[in-house]
Amino acid sequence: MKDNRSMSGFCRDCLAPASGTERRCRTCGSPRLLAHPELDKLAIAHIDCDAFYAAVEKRDNPELLDKPVIVGGGKRGVVSTACYIARIHGVRSAMPMFQALKLCPDAVVIKPNMEKYARVGREVRERMLRLTPLVEPLSIDEAFLDLSGTEKLHGAPAAYVLASFAREVERDIGITVSVGLSYCKFLAKVASDLDKPRGFSVIGRDEAVTFLADKPVTIIWGVGKAFAETLAKDGIRTVGQLQRMEREELMRRYGVMGDRLHRLSRGEDDRRVEPESEAKSVSNEITFDRDIAALDELVPILRAMSEKVSARLKKAGIAGNTVVLKLKTRDFRLRTRNRQLSSPTRLADRIFRTGVDLLQREVDGTPFRLLGIGVTDLTDASLADPPDLIDIQAQKRALAETAIDRLRDKFGKSAVETGYTFHCPPAKG
């Protein structure tokens, strides 16, 4: 890269230098110029792939390019991602599929292909890591980056490096990203949402308080719908109102959250960009094609899902101390139940049996649209499943599971089935 440290701005399409007064690039004619008084001083970025799942599907099938695309779990599921054409009709992520199709009946619905999305996500992540080792993933398609101190390495300030990165991802991987650049994580994340898709927005330190003043309180990290309603009852709807309140008053009203409101409303965020950490949980869930209320129908599905969670744990060399059961009713009410084990496990048998015990307590005739099982409090597999000297049958089941794993490794996953999962549809997710 050439040295662009002295420039006040540049063209995002051809990267030629540009001033803040021009409307179009003098080199390529593009209107996508980037200029900011603090452009060369900022190094904390948030990168977010645009409508990621849908973008990958459109990349792989050009016939979908001009069509509304929804990636989701069929009529019974929810929207995972909607392309921007579908979003014009009001379709949003996590919206029930039936509602999305009412808003956009012409949408092309595609079943998620998580293996493919994970592969593309890894490609993008690998390119991020070429920019800086300080990459903190938030999900498969977004991450924070800290490019502080990398100017000598790249021969250019962070803004220029990030714009070049966005061009390369679009050219080489075939999807687009939006970039937010600031001096802290909170405002970098806010900035990346300002100009989607293919956006690049900057929020500097000098403008932070003014920028935030007229924004709704929901722009603050941690303020969801319920807490926003609480604030509204107290007459607080904008960030500017929070800025005018004393920290002590906010903490008196809202406890620890009051301190966060005080700091973030003023653009104060000292959280560091932390490189990728270990997974906090391993789980599997499925949204049914029809509501299921009967225990004898739920149990085989739970067994298949437990086996999938177990396989992931064994492959990763980890185990979990707590089993978590997740259920969602037909009216989208979520039930989560968990139980801490006497020792960590990675065995499908222990995960399943604990899950069944939790499930039996919840089956009361209520129809469920979703079932999930997983483990948390992860630890190294060397600590998992010590011999049970009291329950001899449990030890026999553990040995049998090990034998089944060997057969499946040699002959394929469907080589051996338990009585629970025979003729049971495969667990998704």
UniProtKB/TrEMBL annotation:
The active site is at E142. Binds 2 magnesium ions per subunit. It is found in: Cytoplasm. Residues 44-224 form the UmuC domain. Gene3D superfamilies: 3.30.70.270, 3.40.1170.60, 5' to 3' exonuclease, C-terminal subdomain, DNA polymerase, Y-family, little finger domain. It catalyses: DNA(n) + a 2'-deoxyribonucleoside 5'-triphosphate = DNA(n+1) + diphosphate. PROSITE patterns: UMUC (PS50173). The keyword Magnesium applies. It comes from the Bacteria. NCBIfam families: PRK02406.1 (NF002677), PRK02794.1 (NF002751). Belongs to the DNA polymerase type-Y family. This is DNA polymerase IV. The gene is dinB.
